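Blinded run. Sample ID left blank on purpose so nobody reads anything into the name before looking at the predicted structure. Input follows.
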Amino acid sequence: MQNPVREPVTAWVALGANLGDARQAVLQAFEALGMLPGTRLTGRSRLYRSAPHQAQGPDFVNAVAQLDTCLSAPDLLDALQALEIKAGRERPYVNAPRTLDLDLILYGQSRIDSPRLQVPHPRWRDRAFVLLPLADVSPEAVNAQDRVRVADQPIDVLPEDSP
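Blinded prediction complete.
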């Protein structure tokens, strides 16, 4: 950890997977996020199924986690990428199918624009698979215009007992 934050910051992380047991990978990622140093899982969305967006492959299981974290945004990004690697994530090409994808969507009110990290995530308002799960945990973060913008993107809530 390079730049710890003294007071916890609320951060939102989008979770997705479409290889292997995607549902289980997302559920395990919720647990792993809550065990990061100086971090507490304070909310989690329902699980959703969505078709790949600007990509190929099987449908995704998607969700959003809300965290209170003392990790800085770059340190949180490092931790997210380490969890992806632990889950077997490979990056053979852009938008390849994945065992686990963790994107830092929002980090408090921070605006970060570096070569390595952009917060808010530059495309979060254009993706139903982020907006709908985010609305589960933070309804105030998603407005009516956001919902209209993604209305044509197919997405379904997964039943609790679905495989």
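Unblinding after everyone has recorded impressions. The first helix runs from residue 22 to 34.
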